[in-house]
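Q: What residues go here?
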């Protein structure tokens, strides 16, 4: 059994990390499609740096929830036959124990040097303009993927989608591509597809099976079923 799990902001919601498109979402009155862009960063880098510095501090104060724990347990059962592809930039999957994981939209704990292109871990607030550990220039930005930029590790993801027997999407609205199209790739490759989300998403009709409810409840019970079916 090879499994690919795509996670979105909804899996971290019950840990206290706001989602993007629900009421009271992350960007406070701004549509994320307008502000999560390289152009918005060029226009007003300080505001963007401050925003990500604040999110990094906030995520450090919260903990993984039972949905993250359940996926870490699933990895202990399936080993490398499970790949978690997360759109989230928090580290809650890792803190729950997941290791076989791809952060396709980047990582809040990493910075990207706009001078030399190297990635490094963030040890200071980016608003303070720390130097790049590689080239020394003070031109670091958050290592996150904005609209119009290429997501990370699409080759790894594609290979896993084409080889999987089951594809699950957890806590994502299906509003952002290419992630929203993964269900189509997996289904075309013959996988069973399942959506686990609080409510119907934009892509619910594309799934073979749908379960609605909070991730902290529906994910552990789905993981129990997958593990039981295997044994
Ligand atoms: C719960 C819950 C609970 C709540 N329990 N559930 C067609 C094809 C290909 C590309 C495009 C296309 N059309 C347009 C594009 C371009 C564009 C795009 O998608 N635009 C849309 C507006 C249509 N995409 C891009 O530009 C991407 N790059 C790209 O396409 O490169 C070229 C390319 C072409 C072809 C193939 C491959 C590549 C880049 C997209 C970058 C997105 N960046 C962001 C910001 C990241 C940094 C940051 O975190 O600040 O990523 S935007 C934001 O949206 C963030 C998220 O990862 C992403 C998805 O959001 P998510 O996770 O789904 O959150 P929400 O809030 O939308 O939904 C939460 C869900 O949880 C809801 O459904 C709730 O109900 C649910 N929920 N509580 C369970 N307790």
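A:
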């Amino acid at each position: 059994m090879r499994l690919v799990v795509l996670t979105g902001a909804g899996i971290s919601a019950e840990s206290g990390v706001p989602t993007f498109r629900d009421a009271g979402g992350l960007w406070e009155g701004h549509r994320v499609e307008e502000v999560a862009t390289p152009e918005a960063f060029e226009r007003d880098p300080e505001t963007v740096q401050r925003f990500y510095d604040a999110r990094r501090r906030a995520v450090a104060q919260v903990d993984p929830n039972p949905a993250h724990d359940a996926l870490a347990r699933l990895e202990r059962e399936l080993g490398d036959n499970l790949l978690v592809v997360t759109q989230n930039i928090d580290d809650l999957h890792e803190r729950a124990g997941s290791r076989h994981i791809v952060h396709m939209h980047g990582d809040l704990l990493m910075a990207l040097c706009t001078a030399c292109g190297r990635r490094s871990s963030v040890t200071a607030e980016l608003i303070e303009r720390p130097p790049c550990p590689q080239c020394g220039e003070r031109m670091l930005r958050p290592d996150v993927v904005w609209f119009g930029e290429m997501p990370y590790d699409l080759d790894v993801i594609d290979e896993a989608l084409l080889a999987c027997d089951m594809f699950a999407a957890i806590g994502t609205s299906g509003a952002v591509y290419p992630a929203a199209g993964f269900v189509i790739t997996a289904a075309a490759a013959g996988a069973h597809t399942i959506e686990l989300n609080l409510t119907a998403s934009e892509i619910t009709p594309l799934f073979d099976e749908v379960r609605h409810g909070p991730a902290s409840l529906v994910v552990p019970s789905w993981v129990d079923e997958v593990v039981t079916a295997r044994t």
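A: Context that may help when evaluating the design: The chain has a mean pLDDT of 95. Residues 147 and 176 are 9 Å apart (CA to CA).
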